[in-house]
Design brief:
Length: 221
């Protein structure tokens, strides 16, 4: 008598071997899918430090460094003042005189600014206190100014006042945006505008670079 065509069903089956590389690939793809897809991971901004030069489109900026500046008391009723200063060398690449400006209070407020300091969209750590600042100005032959003239490299100071007993941070980190010459959001007229993306009801600036500067201590005014 012949055996059934199905053979002996009690015969042990040989295990299927899956290459380890395939398992790793499958796992990686699965995790990536859970995180939102292969092409949706957010790009990290370029990490820079003091001395770096960044092309911001509208500005060319050298991040000179950061320091503690001490202003001695002017009389017996006055008090010594201490500031953390961030120093930049900025060239206005446009054909018009622009303002130094101030950093935005909130990130979502930054995209309308063409001021230089408006591109410093996040500063970490923050400096508490109503009189802490920020204060910003440029230095010229005539003293302090708030203007940046076309094509002229200009030293810019951004400063924060330290409160009594407050220690300066060891480092300061800046999230820096950039600009493009393009049509405006509400018309076809080309002009300089901050590069941003629409997220819900907000326009959030794209971070061109994250700059970390060590704070040097002990400079007197």
């Amino acid at each position: 008598m012949t055996e059934p065509s199905g053979g002996n069903t009690d015969k042990p089956r040989r295990p299927v071997v899956v290459p380890a590389v395939a398992l790793v690939t499958f796992t990686a793809v699965g995790i990536t899918a859970l995180l939102g897809g292969l092409n949706e991971a957010p790009e990290q901004p370029d990490p820079l430090s003091e001395g770096a030069v960044l092309d911001q489109g509208l500005y060319s900026t050298k991040f000179v460094g950061s320091r503690v500046k001490i202003e001695p008391a002017q009389n017996e009723w006055d008090e010594e003042k201490r500031f953390v200063e961030l120093v930049f060398n900025v060239t206005n690449n446009s054909d018009e005189t622009l303002l130094v400006g101030l950093p935005p209070e909130k990130v979502e407020q930054a995209y309308t600014s063409t001021f230089f300091a408006g591109s410093l969209v996040k500063i970490d750590p923050a400096f508490p206190g109503e009189d802490a600042g920020p204060f910003a100005y440029a230095l010229s032959k005539g003293g302090e100014t708030r203007q940046l003239h076309p094509g002229v490299p200009t030293e810019v100071i951004l400063r924060y006042k330290l409160q009594k007993g407050q220690q300066p941070p060891a480092k300061i980190s800046l999230d820096v945006a950039s600009y493009e010459f393009a049509s405006q959001f509400n018309n076809n007229v080309e002009a300089w505008r901050m590069i941003s993306k629409e997220v819900g009801q907000k326009h959030l600036p794209e971070i061109k670079a994250r700059v970390t500067m060590s704070v040097k201590k002990g400079d007197s005014a």
